[in-house]
Specification:
The protein has 239 residues and is mainly alpha-helical. It has one domain (13-38, 50-222). It is 70% helix and 4% strand. Strands 1-2 form a two-stranded antiparallel ribbon. Helix 1 packs across helix 3, helix 3 (79-94) packs antiparallel against helix 6 (186-218) and helix 4 (108-137) runs antiparallel to helix 5 (147-182). The radius of gyration is 21 Å and the shape is globular.
Amino acid sequence: MSLTPDDLVYATWGPFELSATIVFTWVVMVILVLGSWLVTRRLSSGTEISRGQNLLESVVLGMRSQVREIGGPGSDRYLPLAGTLFLFIAVSNLLAVVPGYQPPTGSLMTVTALALCGAIAVPIYGIAARGLGGYLQQYIKPTPLMLPFQVIGELSRTLALAVRLFGNVMSGSMIVALLLAITPLFVPIAMQLLGMLTGMVQAYIFPVLIMVYIASATKSSPGAAPDDDEETMPQEGAE
C-alpha cells in the first residue's frame, strides 16, 4: 500500500519519474479546463440557461460571496486565486471515489506548492495595497524585536497549511484502504463518503485561510475603491 501518490511511479526516464501525482494532477487540470470550456462556450444572458451554466454561476457566485465577506470592498481581485485553489482541491478530493485514482492532494509536494502560492500571493497583494514600506512595517510593530517572530510566523503558517491538507487527505485514503482489507464492503463506503466530506471541508478551509492572510496583509490600505461588481450587488439581490 502506497502512502502517497509519489510512491506510485509509472515510468522513469533517467532522473525524471512519471508518478501518479503528476498524472492525476494533469487529469484534474484537464477536467477543470475542459469542463469550463464546455459550459462557457455557449453562455446565455436570457432567462433560459443550461444546467451547466446554472451550476457554474452558482459556484462562482458562492465563491465571490465568501471572498467579499472575508476581504471586504475591492476583494473581487482575489477571486481567481481563491476560486482556483478551491476548485482544484475540491475536484482532486471528490475524484477519490474513482477506483485507481490517487488524489494529488495526498502528495506533500503538491500541497506545499499550493501553500507556496498563497505565501507568495500574500506579500504581493499586501505590497500592492499598502506599498512596500507600509507592508514591511507590520513586521516591526510594535517593536523591531518582533521581526524574527513575525518571519517565523509567516513560515509556520505556510507549513501548517500544507501539512493540514496533506494529513487529512493521506489519512483518509489509508483508513479506507485498511478497512477494505479487514471489513465488509459497506463500512469502507461509509468511510469513503466521510472522506469526501472531509475533503470538501479542507477545500473550503484552505482558500479561506489564504484569504484571511491576504485580508490581514492589506487591511491598512487607505480606502480601497470597490470593484465594479461590488457596485452592482444591490441590483443582483433585487433580481
